[in-house]
Specification:
By secondary structure, the protein is mostly helical. The protein contains 15 helices and no strands. The chain is globular and about 70 Å long.
């Protein structure tokens, strides 16, 4: 075999030497002085790297806090007809018309209930009440979208109340329009059309509230509590606080308020909930309120939710007791013990809670939940008392089953 060329290099025998490639050649007669780092000082990367890391951590905490306090606003499908996408043959409502209408609706000088007295208000009312449904729908939809897009409106809450009033009045027209599209119309289909119209109304109101809460979250911290309370008061005046679920977004937002403002906000939500007939949603609302206040305020807000003056019945009170029982171990000992006694009065339908009518099996389950909570907290004496109470309930349950 012929010998390999002398220029061939065996694998692994060659190594590149880059040492000195970036070395600055200095003439011998040139003096170079390198300033050392000042004692006690950090270089740029060390100083600003740590500061940036702290800023990033604070930004991440704020971002996650906001994500937990605000639900994402659902995208409207199909796109609003005011954009011209849904019906390209229809003329969208001009922005200047919508802006003028909002200024009219938000004028605080035209106080309810005689705010329809102005000529502009009468014209707006005539279009929504007597105009073609498609035109009225586009106008009302445009007002909703415009109000969502103008959080800095000088009298936003006033405009909100009046737009909501128009939405509620328009519900009957939506029901008639839905029913007119059916091939066969009877009482059942009429109920379905009204349910669809009600769902449309609720979605419009909740979408508007969601936009407002996001706008409040963008405000400086010292302004949020005032704007949040103004929205809650406006909702109460508009009679849209009809369910516990409607108040849930506002309760979830409390986490973005200052710690010294959270208890007052939670109490305001509880007071607002007294304005409607309770029917579901209390497990979520109670959980949100208990998660929004400082630890020392847990017991007071729990007692406020389960107050006898609120006259909650059946499943609603059961959901509250179950939710509160799950967080007793987060409370200070003295307040937790008093709250266990309060919840026991509720479950056993005693004193101010004698109007409740829990079945024996429901009582047994709720007492067992309270007993488990006491054991988690180390309240062995209370757990022993609840053992006796549970035995009484079980005996009553057995007697009921035998009868």
């Amino acid at each position: 075999m012929p010998a390999a060329p002398s220029s061939a290099i065996a694998p692994g025998a060659w190594r590149a030497d880059f040492s000195g490639i970036f070395t600055l050649s200095v003439p011998p007669d040139t003096s170079v002085s390198v300033a050392p780092h000042t004692a006690g000082k950090r270089d740029f990367a060390a100083a600003f790297g740590e500061a940036r890391a702290g800023e990033d951590e604070a930004a991440n905490v704020a971002r996650w806090k906001r994500l937990s306090a605000l639900r994402e606003i659902p995208v409207l499908e199909p796109k609003p007809s005011t954009s011209g996408v849904m019906d390209r043959t229809a003329v969208s409502v001009p922005d200047n018309v919508l802006r003028s209408a909002l200024l009219t609706l938000g004028d605080p000088r035209a106080q309810a209930p005689d705010w329809f007295a102005t000529l502009e208000s009468r014209a707006l009312d005539a279009v929504l009440e007597k105009g073609a449904y498609a035109e009225a729908h586009r106008l009302l939809e445009g007002l909703l979208r415009r109000l969502e897009a103008e959080p800095s409106h000088a009298h936003w809450t006033t405009a909100f109340e009046r737009v909501v009033a128009l939405v509620l009045r328009f519900e009957s027209r939506t029901a008639l329009a839905a029913r007119s599209m059916l091939l066969t119309s009877d009482k059942t289909s009429g109920d379905a059309a009204r349910a669809l119209a009600r769902a449309s109304t609720n979605a419009s109101i909740e979408h508007l509230i969601g936009h407002r809460l996001h706008a409040i979250a963008d405000m400086p911290g010292e302004q949020r509590a005032t704007a949040w309370r103004a929205l809650l008061d406006s909702m109460c005046r508009s009679t849209v606080c009809t369910t516990a679920g409607r108040l849930a977004p506002l309760a979830r937002f409390i986490g973005l308020l200052a710690s010294d403002e959270q208890m007052a906000a939670a109490t305001a939500v509880v007071e607002a909930s007294c304005a409607f007939a309770p029917h579901g949603g209390w497990r979520e609302l109670t959980s949100l309120l208990l998660g929004a206040v400082p630890v020392n305020d847990l017991a007071p807000i729990a007692r406020a939710i389960a107050s006898p003056g609120r006259r909650l019945y059946g499943d609603d009170m059961k959901e509250i007791v179950e939710t509160v029982s799950g967080c007793i171990d987060r409370m200070p000992e003295r307040e937790a013990r008093l709250l266990v006694a309060h919840l026991t009065e509720i479950v056993m339908m005693r004193g101010d809670f004698d109007y409740l009518t829990f079945a024996p099996d429901e009582c047994a389950q709720l007492i067992d939940d309270l007993r488990s909570a006491c054991r988690r907290c180390g309240f062995d004496d209370l757990a022993g008392e609840l053992d006796g109470t549970l035995a009484e309930v079980c005996d009553e349950y057995k007697a009921t089953m035998i009868d």
